[in-house]
Specification:
Strand content: 15-25%
Radius of gyration: 23 Å
Number of domains: 2
Shape: globular
CATH class of the largest domain: Alpha Beta
CATH topology of the largest domain: Glutaconate Coenzyme A-transferase
Number of strands: 24
Helix content: 25-40%
Low-confidence stretches: none
CATH architecture of the largest domain: 3-Layer(aba) Sandwich
CATH superfamily of the largest domain: Glutaconate Coenzyme A-transferase
Oligomer: single chain
């Protein structure tokens, strides 16, 4: 293979101030481990010399701390899109030090190909193996894909590959690499089953596009999920009962139950609870991220098959998967994010989506990105992709946060990512509010019924006061954010006094 082996520092030396870097992977899975820290070190050196150095970073989704964390701490990022869970970078977003663009993950690769996010100068991809076949380079990825195929084909100055020997070559054959055509020439994406292959198990590129490879032996940065709490267990049981009811009513085909689950410990716990419920039939998964509980359920036979964009599991669990890879072949497939999150496929498969909300208002709008409407948490990710196109779109959240000082059910969301038109159901530890077919006021009563008992009187009082103003959705505009304002001023939403905002 006529590709030079280089050091991480050598790779970083190619990259100049103001350039765009495309990074492979999805979550910590499949993200670079050594080149992006070397870019951060280069930024620090240049800053010490009084020279400017910042790059623009586009990824498949969230990415490991070796990219987002290191580059943020080095003040080396100008623009970033589309999703991040890194705390250091989050602070940079909210302070204005980094210009952040929130974006639906299904749109990300298309935006890149159309040039809407700027030209990609360099690609950085992690692989478990690279092979030369008939004068072409085949790149076999690791545990996460993201927009790696698009980056490899679009990076105008070249691609760097980190060959990570910590990942097993047993992963070869577990990827389904397929890129969507331009909108005007797009053909149907013929996925009718979750693990139906339509592409190749590798990315194929011209050798001239590869500027060099760096050898690494580094685990992914994923951490074990926190154990399920009483709240998440109760939410999971409510969701399980809700799905069972929908199956009994004939709304869901029990032989075609396909679930999507969002990111985080709460989502992981809810999916685990579904697996433990004997009345929920064996199911399939089509999702953007696969965490630890689904893999356990595959082993146990509760999950028949799973398609995902990344394996965001602890290094210990990932190594166990590699050892038992034969058990997962034909039942587990990794896809690029534009396929794992593709609206066409989500709608065709009739997916039931399960995502996490920060807050929900009494009419069914959902905020999944911004604390108190202003502070970015992570970004919208793929939740819109699934919510807008799922057969049944459910959001879950604990009824309160901050030791009860913040209610997750509020009169009006401080920021809206998902409008009430696409939100079918909301679950808290107090039950499920089925919003389908309901008018605005019926939605409000259903959602107040699953709010924390401390907040139900407050919410009912607001609704009563707002009814005087009439309309389809009843609001008192100068009081709609009173609970948020009270928390800002007094530190506890329970201290909301409507008389401060509404004169009866």
């Amino acid at each position: 293979m006529n590709i030079p082996e280089i050091s991480a520092a050598e790779a970083a030396s190619f990259i100049q101030d103001g350039e765009w870097i495309g990074v492979g992977g999805f979550g910590p899975a499949g993200s670079p481990k050594v080149i992006t820290p070397a870019i951060a070190a280069r930024a620090r050196q240049l800053h010490e010399q009084g020279l400017p150095f910042k790059v623009n970073v586009v990824t498949g989704a969230s990415i490991g701390a070796t990219t987002d964390g290191e580059l943020s701490l080095a003040d080396a990022i100008d623009r970033r899109l589309p999703f991040s869970v890194n705390a250091d970078l989050r602070r940079a977003f909210n302070s204005g030090r980094v210009r952040y663009t929130d974006l639906n993950l299904s749109d990300n690769a298309t935006f890149l190909r159309q040039g809407l996010t700027g030209p990609v100068d360099w690609g950085i991809i992690e692989a478990c193996d690279v092979q030369e076949v008939r004068g072409r380079i085949r790149i076999y990825l690791t545990a996460g894909i993201g927009i790696a195929p698009t980056i490899c084909h679009m990076a105008r100055k070249g691609v760097f590959i980190e060959i990570n020997t910590w990942h097993s070559t047993r992963l070869i054959g577990m990827h389904d690499i397929y890129e969507i055509e331009a909108p005007w020439y797009r053909s149907p994406i013929r996925i009718t089953q979750p693990v139906e292959m339509i592409g190749t198990p590798y990315i194929e590129v011209d050798p001239e596009r590869i500027k060099g490879y760096v050898m690494t032996h580094c685990p992914d940065e994923s951490r074990p999920m926190t154990p399920a709490t009483e709240v998440t267990q109760r939410i999971g049981q409510h969701v399980a009962d809700f799905l069972v009811d929908n199956i009994r009513e004939g709304y869901i085909n029990p032989r075609r139950l396909i679930l999507q689950s969002g990111v985080g410990s709460g989502a992981n716990a809810v999916l685990g609870a579904l697996g433990e419920c004997s009345e929920v039939p064996d199911f399939n998964i089509y999702t953007e991220v696969l965490q630890e509980e689904p893999l356990r359920l595959i082993r146990e036979g509760r999950v028949v098959s799973a398609s995902t964009g990344a394996l965001t599991i602890s290094p210990e669990h990932l190594q166990a998967l590699y050892r038992d890879m034969a058990e997962f072949r034909g039942r587990l497939l990794l896809r690029p994010s534009e396929i794992s999150n593709c609206p066409e496929i989500i709608a065709r498969l009739g997916i039931c989506s399960l995502n996490t909300a920060i807050e929900v208002d009494i009419y069914g709008h959902v905020n999944s990105t911004k604390i108190l409407g202003t502070k970015m948490m992570n970004g919208v990710g793929g939740s819109c992709d699934f919510t807008c196109n799922a057969m049944l779109a459910t959001f879950t959240c604990g009824s309160t946060t901050k030791d009860g000082k913040i209610s997750s059910i509020v009169p009006f969301c401080s920021h809206v990512d998902h409008t009430e038109h696409y939100v079918d159901a909301v679950a808290t530890e107090y039950g499920v509010a089925d919003l389908r077919g309901k008018c605005a006021m019926d939605k409000a009563r259903a959602l107040i019924a699953i709010a924390h008992p401390d907040y139900r009187p407050l919410l009912n009082d607001y609704l009563r006061l707002a009814e005087r103003y009439g309309g389809h959705t009843h609001h008192v505009l100068n009081a709609a954010f009173a609970m948020h304002d009270t928390y800002r001023r007094k530190g506890d939403m329970r201290l909301t006094d409507w008389s401060e905002y509404i004169k009866e």
